Fold this sequence. Notes:
The structure holds two protein chains of two kinds.
Chain A: H1 5-10, H2 13-18, H3 34-45, H4 55-58, H5 74-102, H6 104-128, H7 131-151, H8 154-160, H9 165-194, H10 202-223, H11 253-256, H12 260-290, H13 297-325, H14 327-351, H15 354-383, H16 388-395, H17 397-419, H18 429-447, E1 459-463, E2 476-479
Helix pairs in contact in A: 3-9, 3-10, 5-6, 5-7, 5-16, 5-17, 6-7, 6-10, 8-9, 9-10, 9-13, 9-15, 12-13, 12-14, 12-15, 12-17, 12-18, 13-14, 13-15, 14-15, 14-18, 15-16, 17-18
Chain B: H1 11-40
Amino acid sequence: MTVTAAQAGASGGISGFLDRSRTIAKPGFNRWMVPPAALCIHLCIGQAYAFSVFNLPMTKLLGISKSAPGDWSIPELGWIFSVAIFVLGFSAAIFGRWVEEGGPRRAMFTAALCWAVGFFISAIGVYVHNIWVVYFGYGLVGGCGLGLGYISPVSTLIKWFPDRPGMATGMAIMGFGGGAFIASPLSVWLMNRFSSATNVGVAETFIVLGVLYFIFMMVGAFIVRLPAPGWKPEGYVAPVQASKLITTSDVYVYDALKTPQFWCIWIVLCINVTAGIGVIGQASAMSQEMFPGHITAVAAAGFVGLMSLFNMLGRFFWASTSDYIGRKNTYFVFMVLGFALYCTVPYTGSVGSVAGFVLCFLVIISMYGGGFATVPAYLRDMFGTRYVGAIHGLLITAWSMAGIFGPVLVNYIREYNITHGVPKAQAYNVTMYIMAGLFVIGFIANFLIKAVNSRFHMKPEGTLPIAAEAGREFGESLTRPASA
Amino acid sequence: MAHASQSGTPAWHLVLAWGFVGIPLIWGVSQTIANALKLFQ
């Protein structure tokens, strides 16, 4: 007996509510409802960027006013964020296909559940003072929520905005950058509310954040809709023939791994993230060491805040710009401008130009965010709409790798230089030139990106009604090419 | 189905949805800018 998607969707219960067929929009649904749904998810998981606000309080869980013997150290706590980002990349890669085929609502619900439960488990870890429980809670369970949440709205937005895919995904991924702006003051406020003479208030804050984030993310899951088969925006005429670098065909998720285009984009993203992530972690110390006496600790904190703002705004600006100048050209701009700016940074240090230094890094960090936000549209251009979410999930592993390369390049080369007698003000120069060199490699990788060979394209098999093919997008069945 | 009208969603749904995500975001950004400006004074 064949059970249609409509029957499955009508079966009721939580499973029915989450079913892909139940998220198909009715005629007249306004597509501008979908970006807020995506933002509900990304603004919540973007909390990860603000996790450092818990670091200091979590070093005083036993001592309360100051660290006591047995309290956790900063390096121990640093692993919480690292594990979460690592799991983000790999959960996105592993569950990408499931997210694509199960639909956005199921993925968003699962992400909300993982994210909230991650906070609850971490609260238990803080309460019993066991760091491994926190690694498991926030790092592993929460990290899965991060990965699922990060990719869940991407392909949905691309389907709703075929005319402006860069802008649409830029809006959502901007939310990931902006989540820290909400989480940071909110967490500090909550810890102040819950703290007492015997408690720093971290566990209670985790519980409240878990509840709030679950509710907020479920609102997104409730709002989200998929376009009906064949839907197009008013006035939009889909290109009949593929342009040079924008395909009208689809590539199966695991076949994308066999194409050189996937790995070229992987390299480009990895380099772009490496260049930004190392600086983000070291911005405060680096600015003070390069400009001793000019940039104080207080001013450096302001610089870090501005960098976060440009990280967020760059996501929307560059991704939207890519709709007009093309994805490949946008990454050319990142690589050329990144090279020039990283070569300029040592000069700004040698002439004592704080304004030049700040300007260079604000542009670099805007391109760091822009690289994240533009890449889903780049993947859509190369591999089509159908599996773009799953392919995006696989690509996120570049982020995990960059999370290791970036800080290593900045921190270890600095340490090496200082131990070999280089003044602190010049200890970052070699790193800057290495970063500039990486952009040259990125430029070459981006230059090598051509249209995907048609042998990787999925072939139409026939036409089936959408109700009978819950996992099919456009009422058309596609099969993998035998040759791929 | 193609070129479907977008008039089926009431305007207040859009306002509510965008307000739900926009207000917390604007609050957070304003907090950050206020702190950044204070720090540079």
